[in-house]
TrEMBL record:
PROSITE patterns: TCP1_1, TCP1_3. Pfam families: Cpn60_TCP1 (PF00118). Belongs to the TCP-1 chaperonin family. It comes from Acorus calamus (Sweet flag). This is T-complex protein 1 subunit delta. SUPFAM superfamilies: GroEL equatorial domain-like. One of its GO terms (molecular function) is ATP-dependent protein folding chaperone. The lineage of its organism: Eukaryota, Viridiplantae, Streptophyta, Embryophyta, Tracheophyta. Residues 132-150 have a biased composition (Low complexity). It comes from the Eukaryota. Keywords: ATP-binding, Chaperone, Nucleotide-binding.
């Protein structure tokens, strides 16, 4: 015996109203941008955590584990391996660091800081464009000096 499932009524569309055709769909671009911004922010926080350990004046980090062990290091790979990262986009930076370590054996902190800097410059792409007044072209630049003949 096969069960028959009726399609949802048209009033159940996410847009609140009925949909006149199957090709119409509800697209929430604001929520997509909010999720992307949250992912970028989480990944940048991981990059910022290791950024201060880079360079000749790099600072040491003290990492305490849940069982009470304390590690003090300025090695980016150790910092990232000991961090408990739950956010998926931030985990991607940790995986990026592990991949860099497996491939080259060095540069784990640099690759994460570089990725964080790239993400920082991506954030303005999600903000609405600033309204700039359009200047109308001046008559001397918009029309030729002599009439065109056809």
């Amino acid at each position: 015996m096969a069960a028959v499932v009726a399609p949802p009524p048209p009033s159940a569309a996410p847009g609140g109203g009925g949909s006149s055709s199957r090709t119409e769909s509800y697209v929430d671009t604001k929520r997509k941008d909010d999720v992307r911004i949250a992912n970028i922010t989480a990944a940048r926080s991981v990059a910022d955590a290791v950024r201060t350990s880079l360079g000749p004046r790099g600072m040491d980090k003290m990492i305490a584990s849940p069982n009470g062990d304390v590690v003090i290091t300025n090695d980016g790979a150790t910092i990232l391996n000991r961090m408990e990262v739950l956010q998926p986009a931030a985990k991607m930076l940790v995986d990026l660091s592990k991949s860099q370590d497996a491939t080259a054996g060095d540069g784990t902190t640099t690759v994460v800081v570089l990725a964080g800097a790239l993400l920082k410059h991506c954030l303005p792409l999600f903000s609405p464009p600033a309204s700039t007044p359009r200047s109308s072209p001046t008559p001397s630049t918009s029309s030729p000096s002599r009439p065109l003949r056809s």
